[in-house]
Structures are given as C-alpha cells and as structure tokens.
Write a structure and sequence with these properties.
Layout lengths: L2 H19 L7 H19 L8 H4 L2 H14 L6 H27 L8 H25 L4 H24 L6 H21 L6 H23 L5 H21 L4
Helix pairs in contact: 1-2, 1-5, 2-4, 4-5, 4-6, 5-6, 6-7, 6-9, 7-8, 7-9, 8-9, 9-10
Length: 255
C-alpha cells in the first residue's frame, strides 16, 4: 500500500473511532479517549513507518495521536445535534490527513530542504495551537484544584512544545538544547495555568490566553533556533504579548 493510501485509510478509521467514542457511556469516556490515543499512536506509526528513526517515535508519531485525544475530549462537549457532530468528524478526518502529510514531510526532510517544508511548519504550528486550545479547555472544564490544572497543562503541553521545537532543525536526535527550551516553556505554561486558576475566567478564555502565550513563545523560540531572532522580531512578538494581555484583562467576560 502506498504511503498516501495509508494516510487516507488511517484518517478514515480514526474518524470512525472518534464517532464510536461518542457512544461510550460517560463513566468510561476518558478510558475511551485514552484508547483512541493509543490506537491513533499505533496507527500513526504504521502509516509513517517507512522513514521513521528511533527518536521520531517521540517527535513525529505522537502528534496525530495527541490531536486525536484533544478532539476526542472536545467531542463530548458538543450539542446533541448530529449535524454538528458530523461536521466536526469531517474536519477531524481532513485535519488528521493534513497532520500525516506534515509528519511525513518532517520525517523525509532530515538533512535536506524540500519545498513543502515551510507549509509543514505552518500546518504544524496551527495544529499545535489547536490541540493546546482543546486540551486546556478540557482541563479547566474539569474544575480541578489549581495544582492539578498546572500538572495536567504541563504534561499535555510538553510533547507539543518538544515536537514543535524539534521540527525547526529536524536533527537526527533530540538535543539537550531542545529539551531545555521545551522544559523551560512548559514550566512557564504550568505557572500561567496555576495563576489563571485563581481568576474567575471562563474555560475558553483561559484556553485562548494560554494558546496566545504559546503562539508568542513558540514564535520567539522558532526564530531563535533558526538564528533569526533580531531585535525587530523580538519587539513585534513582545507587542503582541502585551496587546493580548491587555485585551484579555479588559474585554474577556468573567464566569
């Protein structure tokens, strides 16, 4: 079976799996999402197996699985309308196929530059932010103690940050620099989640703010790793961060 055919088959099967999760009882829904994550990881490994190196089991394969888990958790929050659920199902399938293409580009671009790499960066960043948004909304929607909010936000975001930073250089290993930067950014996200736990903002507002912080932070770190972090670039991202913070404090409604 050709690689693109594997991507299509896997995307369709995982979409059906997502639909099946919806019919699991509420008591078992988190177990069902966990199973969806595991199945997504294994099927992603099968679809991408041709060019995988050992370190890519941590830097390439988890991305589609994390996306599937994030959408699976969000899927429970949708209204009972079948139309909305099937729309999300269709979007999920298309998104999964796009992620497989992106992950495949990362895998085959090791040590060389290909034309589609810039498009892969853009798609990868988009799905990193979307996955962050859905995960954070779910975590804060559980109404957990503040320390659990921070812990879960950290556990869910570390692999997202690691994969995003590794994709910039596409090295044949996970360098100490990438690990250190990923750990530092994850720590900042944990601290931000802890702080926001004490303020009466809605789950979506908190998720949007953390996503915006992640966007600014990844933008700065991407340019740093590319050795393009000039003063003007840093100033632009800093202004975006200040603007987002002001808008969040002034305009976002409380719970």
């Amino acid at each position: 079976m050709r690689r693109r055919e594997k991507f299509v088959v896997t995307s369709v099967l995982l979409s059906l799996g997502l639909l099946g999760v919806q019919y699991v009882s509420l008591e078992l829904r988190y177990w069902a999402v966990g199973l969806l994550f595991l199945v997504s990881y294994l099927m992603s490994a099968w679809a991408l197996a041709d060019d995988l190196l050992p370190h890519e089991w941590l830097t390439v394969v988890p991305f589609p699985a994390l996306y599937a888990a994030a959408v699976g958790l969000f899927y429970f929050l949708l209204p009972e309308s079948m139309a909305s659920k099937f729309i999300i199902l269709g979007v999920f399938g298309v998104g999964m196929y796009a992620l497989f293409l992106t992950s495949n580009i990362y895998s085959v671009a090791k040590g060389r530059t290909i034309q589609l790499l810039h498009a892969a960066y853009a798609i990868g960043l988009l799905f990193t932010l979307l996955t962050s948004l859905l995960f954070t909304n779910t975590v804060f929607g559980l109404k957990l103690p503040f320390y659990l909010n921070g812990l879960l936000v950290g556990l869910l975001h570390f692999p997202l940050v690691l994969m995003s930073l590794w994709s910039i250089k596409l090295e044949n290993y996970i360098s100490g620099e990438i690990l250190a930067l990923s750990g530092a950014l994850t720590l900042f996200l944990i601290e931000l989640a802890l702080i926001l736990s004490f303020y009466p903002f809605s789950e979506w507002n908190v998720a949007l703010f953390i996503m915006a912080f992640l966007y600014v932070s990844l933008g700065i770190l991407h340019n740093f790793l590319k050795e393009r972090l000039f003063e003007n670039t840093l100033r632009e991202y800093s202004l975006v961060a200040v603007f987002v913070t002001i808008m969040f404090v002034i305009l976002f409604p409380y719970k």
